[in-house]
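With this grant's support, we have settled on a layout for protein records. One resulting record is reproduced below.
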Amino acid sequence: MCGRFYIPEKELDDFAKLVAENEQYLVKKHGEIYPGDTVPIITPGKDQARNEVHAVKWGFPSWKGKGLIINARSETASQKPMFKAPFQKRRCLIPATGFYEWKSQDNKKIKHFISIDNKLFFMAGLYWFFKDKNNENVLLPAFTILTTEANSKIMSIHNRMPVIIDEDNIEKWLLSSNYDELNTMLRPANSDKTYISKV
């Protein structure tokens, strides 16, 4: 699971500058990002000519009518009704420098910050457009983060982690229509590049 992630002000500003002018006012928060916050995500461009950056809210609206669906299991996303079309047509990347997990210990939950190679990385995501509750003629974008089984370092804290897309695979993740190729990317990040610290 990925319940919160982190993006510093500088990195956020760098991506926010690439967001379309009519969306920039939506990007207000940096640091620890919570479900429901709006942040820059990377999507394929029109006609796949170049990638674009858009300001999008974290969390698909729940089919139950309450709450947000912030994660999707990568193992089943391509088959589940809610995620099947986004997996086929609207994959994205969410920039971050870390994410958080909590470990239960002595009746307390201990917060941990997890980074990958101590630098900016990109989490695999799906995005889609949903009807506005107040105006059904308006479609609003939202994204969810794909998760996979945790690597050996994270397993002691949580059994899931976000899918991290290597920089070499960015274009393939955003543009490929080959399921076999996509599935090779849906794996845990290298344990040797994973750093964990208590918060």
Observations:
- The longest helix spans residues 81-89.
- The CA atoms of residues 19 and 54 lie 5 Å apart.
- The first strand starts at residue 4 and ends at 7.
- The mean pLDDT is 91.
